[in-house]
From TrEMBL:
GO BP annotations listed: lipid biosynthetic process
Protein name according to UniProt: Fatty acid desaturase
Keywords: Membrane, Transmembrane, Transmembrane helix
GO molecular function, one term: oxidoreductase activity, acting on paired donors, with oxidation of a pair of donors resulting in the reduction of molecular oxygen to two molecules of water
InterPro entries: FA_desaturase_dom (IPR005804), Fatty_acid_desaturase (IPR012171)
Origin organism lineage: Bacteria, Pseudomonadati, Pseudomonadota, Alphaproteobacteria, Sphingomonadales
Gene Ontology terms: cellular component: membrane
Highest taxon of source: Bacteria
Domain Fatty acid desaturase positions: 73-335
Record-annotated membrane-spanning stretches: 55-83, 104-123, 153-175
Length: 359
């Protein structure tokens, strides 16, 4: 779903970061040292997906069934974190070669995508644009806003508004999807504006063609049926309102965590110019060990987000090893080390300070 428009503070016409040239030694070393890490391991992917789903839905069922408020809260938090991990695997679907993980996309959509109303087409065909060298950080990047150059109030609004995501997704699939099948003009708007997990309000997407279009239609139909059934069964009392409310609250919690993670995934300092790969890397964030909490708020390799931008073809389970190798080999002066940060509070503080800095 697209976000609201956020005001920008005044900024220099040219971004200093955008003028950083590529460090060819770093890029060459990164490619050479990780050639043996590019193969996705199906066992890890499936085990992670199944475990996240079992824990997530099991804890959700406990939160719904229990009469204890304390148990409900604890179970709800566990469900939220587990389902967040499962949903984060949508990122892997946009990068992995599906021939190497046969059936995984269908499995993910069955267990996570359709039930949580974020079928994979919401990200496939969108996220790859974020990695395009000529698009990153520009107005054509669906996942970029120069938040560091905006007004201070935009940061809390950016985070808080994300909690409306479950309601927006329910409307998207239970109301807009069926209506758009009958109204061509509405269909155009739904496809272009309400079919992408993006944060750039100016981004518009096109309906894919061929096999991708057929997959889109199947997944959208399945998600629409589920969303309509959820509303009807709740309205008729088949699903207790408590169960529906807890499901929506858990979804809002997932969206909130993800938006906080998005807030610190980049430094957001580019003003719209094309950037070199090194500049893109330095505008992105790694939060490596010894920090522990990123395991929860940046799961499935997202704690190595800068490294992922450097080597987008690496599966998530290879990123920790790649980071260890590069950290050991690259000299201290290498730009590689400048993208690592200690944790969430420092990153949020850095971004907040940037928004109030005189320009």
């Amino acid at each position: 779903m697209t976000s609201m428009t956020l005001d920008r503070a005044s900024a220099p016409a040219a971004s200093v970061r955008a003028r950083i040239p590529d460090d060819k030694a770093m890029l060459r070393t990164a490619a050479e040292l990780t050639r043996d890490l590019v193969q996705p391991r199906a066992g890890i992917y499936w085990a992670d997906l199944i475990a996240s789903s079992v824990v997530g839905y099991g804890a959700l069922a406990l939160a719904i069934a229990t009469a204890s408020t304390a148990v409900m809260i604890v179970a709800g938090v566990v469900s939220m974190l587990a389902l967040y991990r499962g949903m984060s695997m949508i990122h892997e679907l946009t990068h992995v070669k599906h021939a190497q993980l046969r059936g995984f996309r269908a499995g993910w959509n069955t267990l996570i995508g359709v039930p949580m109303m974020i079928p994979s087409f919401m990200y496939e065909g969108v996220h790859n644009l974020h990695h395009a060298k000529t698009r990153y950080g520009t107005s054509e990047d669906p996942e970029y806003l120069p938040l560091a150059l905006m007004k201070p109030w935009t940061l809390p609004v950016f985070v808080i508004v994300s909690m409306l995501a479950p309601v927006g997704l329910l409307i998207r699939y239970a109301v807009l999807a069926p209506l758009s099948a009958l109204l061509p003009r509405l269909r155009t708007a739904v496809v272009s504006r309400y079919s992408a997990l993006s944060i750039n309000p100016s981004f518009r997407r096109r309906m894919p063609e061929g096999e991708e279009r057929a997959r889109w239609v199947r997944l959208e139909a399945a998600t629409s049926v589920w969303a309509v059934a959820l509303i009807v069964l709740t309205a008729t009392g088949v699903i207790p309102f408590k169960a529906f409310a807890i499901f929506m609250v858990v979804g809002a919690g997932v969206a909130l965590i993800n938006q906080v993670r998005t807030l610190v995934a980049h430094l957001w300092e580019n003003e719209g110019e094309a950037m070199s790969v090194t500049a893109q890397y330095l505008d992105t964030v790694n939060v490596p060990p010894p920090a522990l909490l990123p395991v929860l708020w940046a799961p499935v390799g997202l704690r190595y987000h800068a490294l992922h931008h450097l080597l987008p073809g690496l599966p998530y389970h290879s990123l920790a090893e790649a980071h260890r190798r590069l950290s050991k080999v690259l000299e201290p002066a290498s730009p590689y080390h400048k993208a690592s940060y200690k944790g969430l509070p420092a990153l949020v503080g850095k971004l907040a300070v940037a928004t109030i800095r005189p320009r």
